[in-house]
Amino acid sequence: MSSEGPPSGAEARERPGPGLLLVLSAPSGAGKTTLAHRFRAAHPDALFSVSATTRAPRGAEQDGVDYHFVSAARFAELVAQGAFAEWAEVHGQRYGTLRATVDGALRAGRIALFDIDVQGGEQIEAAWPLDTVTVLVLTPTVAELERRLRGRSTDSEAAIRRRLDAARAEVARGLATYDYVVVNDDLDAAHARLHAIARHERSLRGAPADLADSAAAARCRRGEADTGDWASPR
Ligand code: ADP
Ligand code: 5GP
Rg for the chain (alpha carbons), in Å? Predict the structure, then answer.
């Protein structure tokens, strides 16, 4: 959380503001992490919201970078202190967004990127309606998600089925409540869409407007984007 706190010196002078809470949600495997890193690299003023979680680190994950890894007791303490902007239990583990991250990003006029589930994104939007933009990231088709999941995991057939069912439920909810849908067919194209959304939303909050960005963002509005077979019932 090194980027929190009020801006000072050069940071304050250069800050491009206004701050934006950019929530990215997606079914696991849709490419949200890849997209978020690409966005962060292209926007030096963007920061990742590092959630706290009770789950154990996986692979090369680092404490304070990927998550703040905490015990169940510490998580409960943070809940009692009101430290979370929202928190949830996902797959039997707890995950929470720190209020300090939200406040720090808004004070500093920065874009905060959130990698959280749809109900968490809905809570952030309800709490900071003027500052939040929610984006659902999708594969072009359900079959493409299945292909990416099979490509990267050693999960059993039953586990893959469970993930796909969970993905369908998560996407159905996001398609009903989120502001934008970014289809991650091609990574460069998906990044361009996300970039346009961020610039358009900042222009609504006082930054200079760009007609091309606003037109590109409009094509990603919920209900406008082509959501393939995600929208159709099974
Ligand atoms: P998530 O964070 O949503 O679980 P990841 O970013 O880990 O997803 O991406 C899942 C897999 O899909 C990775 O192997 C990644 O390289 C791949 N991927 C991401 N975007 C694309 C894309 N546009 N086309 C094909 N593969 C992609
Ligand atoms: P993972 O354990 O794979 O990193 O994350 C599992 C799920 O928890 C993902 O859908 C991720 O978006 C979600 N998640 C991670 N952090 C938070 C958080 O702070 N709040 C909420 N609501 N969900 C989170």
Answer: 18
